[in-house]
Amino acid sequence: MILRNVVIRHGRKAFCAPIQKSFLRSLTTESSPSDTKSLQRPIENHLDETGGMAPEISNVNSGNHRSPSSQPSQSIDKVQANHIYKQHLKKRTNKLGSIVQKHYDPESLVQNPPKPEDITLELLMASQSHLGHSTSLWNPGNQRYIYGIRQGVHIISLEETAAHLRRAAKVVEGVAYHGGLILFVGTRAGQSSCVVKAAQLAKGCHLFERWTPGSITNGDQILSKCDIKVVDKDDNEITRGYEAKIEEWSALKPDLVVCLNPLENYILLHECGLNNIPTIGIIDTDADPTWITYPIPANDDSIRSVQVVAGVLGQAGAEGQRKRLLAARTGTVTWSPPPGLGAPQIDAEATAIAAQPKFAEPQPLQEQIPATNDVRGQNGAEDEL
Amino acid sequence: MGASWLPASLRNTLQCACSPRPMALNRLRIFNTRTRHFSTSPSSRASFAAPEISFGRQREVPQGGRDQAGFQPVDEEERPKFYARLVPSSPSYFTAQPLFTDDLLVLQNLLRRYSTLPVVKPGEQPRMSWRSLTEYRDQVGEAVKSSKYQKIVQILNRLNYIHPSLMPPEVRAAINEYKRDINAFQNIAKVSPVDRLGRTLGAGRRKAATARAWVVEGTGEVLVNGKTLAEAFGRVHDRESVVWALKSTGRIDKYNVWALSMGGGTTGQAEALTLAVGKALMAHEPALKPALRRAGCLTRNPKRVERKKPGHVKARKMPAWVKR
Q1: Dihedral of alpha carbons A10, A12, A13, A14, sign
Q2: Would you state the pLDDT for residue B188?
């Protein structure tokens, strides 16, 4: 019985079990006498340095090159085809299913910012612009903007916010209409996208990293390497005739500064104050409203609230620019050229070479302007009058 | 492009000459030669405040002697006003680094637009070497900080992960703009071929010595400058250095070495031979490369004699301190 069990148990295993690997290896391994000799030969004092790699080295097949370790997981055609198929599916099935009517899309406030006429208390409330700071942190200067206290937090009156935002939008639009240079500043993390978008809309400048102190009061030093250009009334660049003037022109200053986080940019606002540059800023309940010319009481800690404010001001600037260009096309120029800039100075030969420059002025006028100094003299005379 | 050692004026000229980016003319000014305009003229604010007072027609009195030919005194009213104003070339004007900021914004835009494209697995992307910080600074002419340039490099690395079959042309253009002219990762060391007599040639250097070694399959004979190993090198350590590439790989009785070495001293010559024999051996058996690398037979030792300094006795040694 015991024997039978042994046969039943181990007989099956004996047939099924694979042949042991060591047996297979001993059959197939080729060992050349020189290999073993090199292994056996004592390598005097450097054996330990090679780290016992001599055996594996002697097994290396000298004719073989190493194959690349990683193969591309998917073939190139397959990835491309899959991507195209995915895009196709997405396009076909995009409009299936339910439609969410009102929802918050984080990108939409940056991509399609609201216009000044879109300002509603609902929009401001939805973008959390009513939330102030803890009552213990407040600045009493903001008392008139505060609606009340809820759970120890000041609530900003949204009617005030809307009114001040509309007023600021008017200011931005007016400055853009009169050809002013608007600077949008938002140096907190996450504000860069809306700042850049607002500047792009208003054709102004943006700043989303640290304000270099002195860029206004000491601009000739700090901004000396930054390029400026001359544009005509239709915003077309005038490429010739002003090289000498641009060379010696002092650094530009903004005509309006929109600061989305005044608390961190006191130096900027101070410089604006020294240079009579008006400022627009978001004033939370802990900020000092006297730093700013046109305060907008709102929450400056919420990205969404900041995006609404920046977007509205950017759209207002875009509207002002549009109106300015429209007026310029109909013959009304809404701004006056800076004193001392004058008309482009082109040499007679240069004019002859250029076939028909768009900005070239009538010929007799050029003869009337002998040199730069005389123009300055004339300007001086005007100033005295 | 590495022109940072040049004096400032020359450097700027050089940048304009060799920069791929068109430089504006006024980048040429190095020292600030602008004159300040302190003007209290109300005409700049004419559109905001009350309009300028017109005093009617004022004729300039012609001064007979100084009058130039063709110069006619004209009225302000008659002459058409030329409308021109100054605006920044870039919206990043007030960042004081407009070119860098514009570059960063362009790349961020690209990344935002193409971040949904399929990417390759980590390690499968083409290895890229980007322009160094100094090169980039020379290119834009702005004192860009390293941390700021790292932002650009990060975005480029991410863009480089986009699957090559779906890489948009504009991303490819952006990558090409920041790619170093010579890609170090494409540099493949050339292997000397086995000639018709079965020899391979390797060259090596160490300190002031140079060496060439011809390695041929054989029985382990070594001749250095026509002498046997024991005659050529007195120190046992030096003898071992010469054949270290063969010894560490267990090939000492399979190859013959015929070598020439010149310059430097015995140690330099012996270790230059290590390198030469290692390279020649690798030409015979390319699969030995990792082993030879670990054994130190493929790495050129760049150390040279340190120069003597003034005030020192040798390179580092100071004269002995003497009381008074």
Answers
A1: positive
A2: 77
Architecture of domain A116-216+253-329: 3-Layer(aba) Sandwich (3.40)
Pick B200-294's CATH classification: 3.60.15.10, 3.90.180.10, 3.30.230.10, 2.60.120.280: 3.30.230.10
Partner A contacted by B40 (CB < 8 A): yes
ipTM of this complex prediction, to 2 decimal places: 0.71
CA distance A126 to A115: 16
The per-residue pLDDT for B48 is 55
Task: Report in angstroms the alpha-carbon separations of A319 from A201, A275, A278, A322, B206.
Answer: 9, 27, 20, 5, 72
| Alpha-carbon distance values, B27 to A58, A240, B268 (Å) | 64, 16, 51
Furthest-apart CA pair in chain B: how many Å?
112
B253 CB-contact burial (10 Å; exposed 0-12 / middle 13-18 / buried 19+): middle
Q: Phi and psi (nearest 5°) for A347?
A: -65, 155
Task: Name the residue among B91, B240, B253 with its Cβ closest to that of A38.
Answer: B253
pLDDT value for B162: 95
Q: What is the mean pLDDT of each run of 10 residues along chain A (385 residues)?
A: 52 48 44 42 41 44 42 71 94 88 86 94 95 95 95 96 96 95 95 95 95 94 92 90 88 96 95 96 95 95 96 97 94 89 73 49 42 39 38
Query: B209: which strand partners?
Result: B206
Closest Cβ opposite residue A227 in set B26, B47, B287: B26
The predicted structure's pLDDT at residue A146: 96
The H or E element that residue A299 is part of is none
Rounded Cα distance, A247 and B32, in Å: 10
Specify the pLDDT at position B78.
Answer: 52
Residue pair A236/A171 in contact by the 8 Å Cβ criterion? no
Q: How many CB atoms lie within 10 A of CB A251?
A: 21
Q: How far is B180 from chain A (nearest CA, A)?
A: 25
Domain layout of chain A by residue ranges:
116-216+253-329
Chain A closest-CA separation from residue B16 CA (Å): 14
In the DSSP assignment, the letter for residue A42 is P
**A84 within 8 A of A64, measured Cβ to Cβ:** no
| Residue in chain B nearest A257 by alpha carbon | B94
Question: What is the full DSSP assignment across A207-219?
Answer: E-S---TTTTTTH
- DSSP tag of A184: E
d(CA A259, CA A255) in angstroms, rounded, equals: 13
Contacts of A79 (CB under 8 A, 6+ apart): B118, B163, B165, B166
Can you give the pLDDT at residue B8?
A: 55
Low-confidence ranges of chain B (pLDDT < 70): 1-79
CA distance A140 to A129: 19
CB-CB neighbors (< 8 A) of A77 in chain B: 165
Q: CB pairs below 8 Å between A and B: how many?
A: 223
pLDDT at B80: 72
Spans of all domains in chain B? 8-48, 98-182, 200-294
